Amino acid sequence: MSEELNATTKPEPTPEAPKTFTPQPKMTEEQEAAEYDRLLGDVVCRLTELRLHDLREVENFVDIVEHETGCNTPAEEFITDLVRYHCCRDGGNGLTPDDVRQHLEEFERNFWDEVEAARRFAKRYPKAVRERKTEGRA
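Request: output the structure for the sequence above.
Response:
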């Protein structure tokens, strides 16, 4: 970021823009860096206004986003998809019960597929599973 943020720095937020999904043209590295700096400044500014409880919820969501890798992390994918839909669907008009049902059905399919995949993996590679556990990395 162009300015170092610390406890005394409080950037001014950018005016609230409508949250709509529009395909973005490919950005240059410089444009991407500038957008990253702008967005990070906005987020940091907004975080400084949150109550502790809300800040912990943001931390939890960041953990979910960091661990989401698609259908092989079904709970994380379900949660991030719901948020994405809520913010971007129909120009940011939120979720409908039908949207949630559709995502829930996909979550349930992916969840049980991953349970079965884990069983198959453990059966096929028992030595790797045992070694990983004994090394304290499981």
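Residues 29-134 form one domain.
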